[in-house]
Structure formats: structure tokens, C-alpha cells
């Protein structure tokens, strides 16, 4: 890898600030001062110091965040703070949400810079279960609740779509609170499923994705790295 790129990948410096640091003599390569930005280095073997501090590439990163409401999953700056603004890691903007949550949805959000892993989690072919808890505007109980459970189990035709949703599981915690487990991630899927059932979602929270569950250990806005077992579970 080129030395200026290595510097910009391992520090908050941009490529041009990395070149300036090189010119200013702030960098050594294997103990020798170096100024040439185009020098090719072996990122595993060579020892690069910036002002005496050793630099190393970070590997792929896997994060879980307890997303609060009023935070956006987009990369560009807009009306609301972005989820990556909550993650105090260098180059956090390289992390991509693994399946977005709406701005008002709370709960478990995974982020990574590993595109293949992200695909395994989100692709409907892999049928990874995502569990949501929805607060409903209208109570559903008795025959109506049973009808809704059956509809969801069979698959629902969403407005403007040509294929029904994959079979999913609906469970009522109370007449106004339901747990929905789905294996796809269509646009506003949970809210649109409840609209198709004649209801409206007032609040939505994602509880788990596959084997990864949000617990009280992470307060809203807090994040942690996934364990190797959690990463391997997909
Ligand atoms: N389904 C929705 O409608 N919204 C979300 O944020 C996630 C799933």
C-alpha cells in the first residue's frame, strides 16, 4: 500500500495532510525518516511511526448500537444526527448500517465495513430473523388478533408490491403491543405490514437480529464491538 494512503487509513489525517506530515519529517519507516508519499510499504511487516507513535491498519469492524429515536441511518448530514456520529472510532464513517432503521425506530442496529457479512445478514435468501416490538394505535385481540397472526404467517401483499411478504411470526404481548419476527427487510416493512392489517405503528423497536439480542447492558446511544462468536453466528 502507498505510504500516504496507509497514513490516511490509520489516522484521522486526509491524504493531503498525510503528505504534509511526510514532508514535515513526522514519519519514519523501519526507523528511518521518510518523505516520499508514493513509497510502497508492507502493511503487516513494515514499522511506520507518526511522531513516534506506531500505526497499524484496523481489521474489519463489527459494531452493535442501541439506536435512539431521532437519529438517522444515512451517511450524509441532514436534519438529525447520524448513527455514525454516535460511534467514537476513527473513520467511523466507513461503517455501514446492516439494514437501516427509520429515524423514529429504536433498538438494535448492526454496523460494519464488511460488505459480504452485511449481505449474509440482510439478504432474504439467508432468512435471518429480525424481531421487532410494535406499539399499535388500535388494540387487536380475539378473532381479530388470530386473523392477523394467520395473515402474517401466510404472507401479506404490501401496497405497491407484487410478491407477498415471506411467512412471518406475530405474537401479541398485549392488545396494543405485538412482537413481529420477519426474515426480510423491505422498505418500512413492519409499519406497512400493520397498515395492511388495518392498524398503525405508533412506536417501533428492534429487539434482535439472528442470535444477537439487545439487552439492558447497552443504554440508548451506546455501542459495543461484537464478539467473535456473534460475528461468526451469521
Ligand atoms: N420496518 C419498519 O417499518 N421500520 C423500520 O425501521 C424497520 C423495519
What attributes characterize this protein structure?
Structural Genomics Hypothetical 15.5 Kd Protein In mrcA-pckA Intergenic Region, Chain A, 4-stranded antiparallel beta sheet, 3 domains, Alpha-Beta Plaits, 234 residues, alpha+beta
Describe the fold and architecture.
The two termini are 31 Å apart. By secondary structure, the chain is of the alpha+beta class. The protein folds into 3 domains: 3-54, Structural Genomics Hypothetical 15.5 Kd Protein In mrcA-pckA Intergenic Region, Chain A, CATH 3.10.290.10; 59-125 and 221-234, Pseudouridine synthase I, catalytic domain, N-terminal subdomain (Alpha-Beta Plaits, 2-Layer Sandwich); 129-209, Alpha-Beta Plaits, CATH 3.30.70. The strands form 2 sheets. Strands 5, 6, 7, 8, 9, 10, 11, 12 and 13 form a 9-stranded mixed beta sheet that branches. Strands 2-1-3-4 form a 4-stranded antiparallel beta sheet, with no helix packed on it. The protein is built from 6 helices and 13 strands. 22% of the residues lie in helices and 25% in strands.
Helix content: 10-25%
CATH class membership of the largest domain:
Alpha Beta
CATH-wise, what's the superfamily of the largest domain? Pseudouridine synthase I, catalytic domain, N-terminal subdomain
Do you know the CATH topology of the largest domain? Alpha-Beta Plaits
- Identify every distinct bound molecule in the structure, by name, code or SMILES: uracil
Judging by the overall fold, what is the CATH architecture of the largest domain? 2-Layer Sandwich
The pLDDT mean sits at 95
Helices and strands, in N-to-C order? HHEEEEEEEHEHEEHEEEH
Domains counted in the coordinates: how many?
A: 3
End-to-end Cα distance, whole Å, is 31 Å
Which word captures the global form?
elongated
Number of helices: 6
- Would you identify the regions where 5 or more consecutive residues have pLDDT less than 50? none
Question: Measured on Cα atoms, how large is the radius of gyration?
Answer: 23 Å
Report the structural category. Answer: alpha+beta
Largest sheet features: 9 strands, mixed
Strand content: 15-25%
Query: Using DSSP, what is the number of strands?
Result: 13
Amino acid at each position: 500500500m502507498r505510504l500516504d494512503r496507509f497514513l490516511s487509513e490509520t489516522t484521522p489525517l486526509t491524504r493531503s495532510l498525510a503528505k504534509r506530515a511526510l514532508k514535515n519529517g513526522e514519519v519514519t519507516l523501519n526507523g528511518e525518516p521518510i518523505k516520499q508519499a508514493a513509497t510502497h510499504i508492507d502493511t503487516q511487516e513494515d514499522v511506520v511511526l507518526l511522531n513516534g507513535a506506531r500505526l497499524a491498519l484496523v481489521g474489519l469492524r463489527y459494531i452493535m448500537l442501541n439506536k435512539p429515536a431521532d437519529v438517522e441511518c444515512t451517511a450524509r448530514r441532514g436534519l438529525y444526527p447520524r448513527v455514525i456520529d454516535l460511534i467514537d472510532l476513527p473513520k467511523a464513517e466507513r461503517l455501514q448500517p446492516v439494514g437501516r432503521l427509520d429515524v423514529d425506530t429504536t433498538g438494535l442496529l448492526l454496523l460494519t465495513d464488511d460488505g459480504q457479512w452485511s449481505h449474509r445478514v440482510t439478504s432474504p435468501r439467508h432468512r435471518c430473523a429480525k424481531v421487532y416490538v410494535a406499539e399499535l394505535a388500535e388494540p387487536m385481540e380475539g378473532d381479530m388478533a388470530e386473523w392477523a397472526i394467520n395473515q402474517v404467517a401466510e404472507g401479506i401483499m404490501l401496497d405497491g408490491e407484487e410478491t407477498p411478504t415471506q411467512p412471518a411470526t406475530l405474537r401479541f404481548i398485549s392488545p396494543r403491543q405485538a412482537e413481529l419476527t420477519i426474515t426480510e427487510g423491505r422498505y418500512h416493512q413492519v409499519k406497512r405490514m400493520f397498515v395492511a392489517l388495518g392498524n398503525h405503528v405508533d412506536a417501533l423497536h428492534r429487539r434482535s437480529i439472528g442470535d444477537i439480542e439487545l439487552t439492558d447492558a447497552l443504554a440508548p446511544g451506546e455501542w459495543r464491538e461484537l464478539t467473535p462468536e456473534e460475528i461468526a453466528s451469521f
